[in-house]
Amino acid sequence: MGTRSYKSTSDIRTLPVPQPIRSLIAFRRISIAAGSTVLVAFDIPIERFHYWSVEKQAYVIDLEDYVIEIGASSSDIRQTCQIRVKDH
Predict the structure, then answer these.
(1) What are the percentages of helix, strand and coil residues in the chain, rounded to 5?
(2) CB-based burial, 33-42: b 16+ in 10 Å, e otherwise
(3) Is 21 contained in some domain?
């Protein structure tokens, strides 16, 4: 919370446990009035967790744990959590 209104971007990135590279899976540009807080919610389709498998020559989704990073950018991570992607 600050004394001036501003615009910010909330990014959600995944860091799959077996993969070393982050992937941007969702973002939303939001306006925040001075002195206020905003709840930002995302519905993220399971397909956003896919990556290209060189071995299988296809996009795959690992049914494993992922670290979710939430922040204003990849260099400004403000929250993390771990989720498990299950068969859909």
Answers:
(1) 5, 50, 45
(2) eeeeeeeeee
(3) yes
CATH number, domain of 37, equals 2.60.40.10
Distance CA 85, CA 64 (A): 6
pLDDT in tens, 15-28: 655 555 778 889 88
Name the pTM for this structure. 0.62
Structure tokens at 65: 């744990």
* Average pLDDT in the chain: 83
**Residues 45, 43: Cα–Cα separation, whole Å:** 7
User: Is residue 26 a part of any domain in this protein?
Assistant: yes
The arithmetic mean of pLDDT across residues 58-80, rounded, is: 88
Residue 59 counted as domain residue: yes
